[in-house]
Amino acid sequence: MPIDTRPFERLLRDLCPPVRARRIADRLIRANLLDTTRLRALALALYVDEQTTRGRAKTEALEQAAIDFNCSYSTACRAVYDTSNQKTIKLLQK
Predict the structure, then answer these.
(1) Are 23 and 14 in contact (CB under 8 A)?
(2) Hey, where are the domains in the chain?
(3) What is the pLDDT of residues 33-83, one digit of tens each?
(4) What is the rounded CA–CA span in Å between residue 2 and residue 29?
């Protein structure tokens, strides 16, 4: 499964164009300089956050995230309730 680099790209959005941010993310992943586990957890948390913002119940959003990301429900929960992910999401929403 390809790594979702969108959270990292969002962090770079004020610094460079989206295409360049994607290239930077790809290069950092290939060089093993980005923690892909953390990126996946952040992508899960962002997915659930977007779903709940659209009016979906959090438990339903977590279930769907587990299906879409091919992980367990508990993995999705850990990603969503991880305080460092919550802080990053707040940063991305500014």
Answers:
(1) no
(2) 6-93
(3) 888 888 889 889 989 999 999 999 999 999 999 998 889 999 999 999 998
(4) 11
- CA distances to 13, 30, 60, 68, 78 from 91, rounded to whole Å, are 12, 26, 25, 25, 19
* Cβ pair 34, 25 in contact under 8 A: yes
Euclidean distance between CA atoms 35 and 73, whole angstroms:
21
Joined tokens for residue 44 = 């899960």
Check: pTM over 0.90? Answer yes or no: no
What are the structure tokens assigned to 50, written together? Answer: 């977007």
Interatomic CA distance for residues 74 and 67, integer angstroms: 12
Q: Which residue has the tokens 């091919």?
A: 70
